[in-house]
Amino acid sequence: MNELLLLSLLLLTGFVAGVSNAIAGGGTFFTFPVFLAAGLPPVVANASNAIAVWPGHALAVVGYRKSLAGYGDGIGSSVLIALGGGITGALLLTVTGNAVFVKLIPFLLLFATILFASGPALGARLSALNAVPSLSGSGKVASIVQFVFAFYGGFFGAGLGIMYMAALHLSGVHDVQANNALKNLLAAVVTSVAVLVFAATGLVAWKYTLTAFSGAMVGGYAGAYIAQWMPGLWLRRIVIAFGLLLTIYYFVKYYG
What is the DSSP letter of 133? Predict the structure, then answer.
């Protein structure tokens, strides 16, 4: 692929990923294939992508700071769980060989796509299990779920947003705006610690990463405000469709 075209695609998909992560999650679906198309080893592509889409959740927290102010109870324990799970998942990726990871890609994408497709139904089912009105009342089941999702987020990350929204439903956070605000906070924690691990271990192609990162910074900040007045249904449908196409493509590529 032409270098200028590649950098342009990374900038554009970075912006789209930033908006998508702030509203509904799934930004990785847009950027990860471009990193692979750049010819990077799969593990490096995944680590570079994690850094590139980091602003999507992190900057969205700024836009939701007022909503977060009313949910102080219980946030501390959830942040610690996110830290532990995110670091563990990121460290596992650093010792996973490219030959192994490349075979996991179609399954990881399929898993993430299914999560997106079943997100609302999953959230409704989980919320029925717990009627506690705040994070302070979340129990052991919710904590385990949060850790598993944080671990997954540190290892791959696609679909982390919708996974956290479901986990927060289980923890008793049923208000949509509060849920979205907390989802962005915890996802930002997971991706932040993963970014530190990947940068420290040298698994980053910085030229490509910083290009997509620039687009994601703008998209993430804009998405936090767009999400508060625009329904995310149309974006969810695009993400799901894109996820299915990618899943089919990589199954054919690596197993066909």
Answer: S
